[in-house]
Amino acid sequence: MHNQLPTRSSLWLYAPLWIFFVYLYIQILSFNQGAISNIFLGGMYFVQFGVHEAGHIVFGFLPAVIVAAAGSGSELAFTILLAIAAFRAKAYFAGIFGLLWVMLACASVGTYMADARAQLMPLIGPSGDPQHDWNFVFGQLGLLDADIAIGTTVKVIGGIVGAVALLLGLLLLIAMAGRSKSAKQPL
Fold it and tell me: Do residues 46 and 33 lie in contact, with contact meaning Cβ atoms separated by under 8 Å?
């Protein structure tokens, strides 16, 4: 049996969910780690931050430059894998949420990258003076002067991913609205 696109009668559930996704997209566009006022976004970021720190630990046996990048890399990989898993399971709206979470990860990682030279972000770590991951990585790679350009590019990619997610959701809603209540074809 194929997973099917929800029927037209499910629009009452999915249309408000899509509107929530638009709200979430707007919130992520103005995301600031230091001033999270949205509890839902704060929860997502809290999980993501835990994944970031776990990435440093899991990859701790590798060279220092990789360990430093592994935190942000883990944030991105975690959210991308969530989105992929949802789409593979044909849970399309969960996949859209996953893509919005990828957008949040890109906003977080991009902001961190762009802060490499200025180092204005407050950092948390096991030592009293934690090292700025991207200052170290970009310094080792000779890319420190490109921190803002790289970070901004990552944030823009996230914004595009989020916009594609919303467009996909809108197309799914349109497809659902066009189906008759008795339609059984998979999308």
Answer: no
Angstrom distance (rounded) from CA 55 to CA 50: 9
User: Which residues does 158 contact at the CB level (< 8 Å), separation at least 6?
Assistant: 28, 102, 103, 104, 105, 106, 107, 110
**What's the confidence (pLDDT) of residue 182?**
47
- Other beta carbons within 10 angstroms of residue 104's beta carbon come to 22
Task: Supply the pLDDT for residue 33.
Answer: 77
Nearest residue to 79 (alpha-carbon basis) of 35, 40, 44: 44
Q: List the chain residues with pLDDT less than 70.
A: 1-9, 125-129, 179-187
The verdict on pTM exceeding 0.90 is no
Per-residue model confidence (pLDDT) at position 78: 97
**With contact defined as beta carbons under 8 Å apart, do 87 and 95 qualify?**
yes
Alpha helices in the chain (DSSP H): 11-29, 39-58, 64-88, 92-114, 133-141, 147-178
- Residue 76: in which H helix or E strand, if any? helix 64-88
Contact (CB, 8 A) for 104 and 31: yes
- Unique residue bearing structure tokens 């949040």: 104
8 A C-beta contact, residue 140 and residue 65? yes
